[in-house]
Amino acid sequence: MHPERCEMKIKINKGCRIAQSINHRIAILRESAELHIIARMRVRRWQSNLLSSAGFFLPIQKDTMLKMKFLLPLLILLSAIVWWLVPHYSDEDKGYYIAVFCTLTKDGRDNSPNAMQQIIEGSNSDYALQKIRFKSDLAEHLQKVWRNLTPAQQQQAHQTALQCRQIMSTVMLPGKPVE
Fold first, then answer.
1. How many beta carbons lie within 10 A of that of residue 123, not counting itself?
2. Are 104 and 110 spatial neighbours (Cβ–Cβ below 8 Å)?
3. C-alpha angle with apex 140: 124 to 153, nearest 5 degrees?
4. What is the 3-state secondary structure (H, E, C) of the chain?
5. Angle made by CA atoms 6, 8, 12, in degrees to the nearest 5
């Protein structure tokens, strides 16, 4: 119903009252939407003014984007170099070093990195095309893992080479089955 028609009629009619209240609510919603749009425009204008005078309010200078164009690729390059330099050992290498370490431990011999180096490099044949190189970092990491084991775990590892490989593999190769 139109509000003009309602004004002509007697206002006791319930339909006219509902139409008037709906029209009134719509008008209020339109006003609040317009106010919201105006407020958003004022905030955006304030932000643009603030950013244009960023030399005083913000520590960001105008040439920051130019710096970022050079700093971001440099940061990515440096992180790639660091990742490349950090040693990454394959599971096969870890398993081989664990087996050598556990063989030395079970026999009661010295399981130091020097003893491991003698066994690993001593197993290379003179005619071998691909000789196994000793990785001292991996041997030292294995020693750290051994020192971090509890005395009960170390005693259990001394009993058999299989138990030693299982204990060391749980730390060095989590989730991998030991044979």
1. 11
2. yes
3. 105
4. CCHHHHHHCCCCCHHHHHHHHHHHHHHHHHHHHHHHHHHHHHHHHHHHHHHHCHHHHCCCCCCHHHHHHHHHHHHHHHHHHHHHHCCCCCHHHHHHHHHHHHHHHHCCCCCCHHHHHHHHHHCCCCCCCCCCCCCHHHHHHHHHHHHHCCHHHHHHHHHCHHHHHHHHHHHHCCCCCCC
5. 55
Identify the residue whose tokens are 């431990």: 105
Of 38, 44, 39, nearest to 52 by C-alpha is 44
Measured distance CA(101)–CA(119) in Å, rounded: 10
pTM over 0.70: no
Residue 87 Ramachandran class (φ > 0 left, ψ -120 to 50 alpha, else beta):
beta
pLDDT tens for 70-128 read: 888 888 999 999 988 888 888 888 888 888 888 887 777 777 888 888 888 888 788 87
Nearest to 101 by CA among 110, 87, 111: 111
Q: Tokens representing 16? A: 């006219």
Tokens in use for 176?
Answer: 């991998």
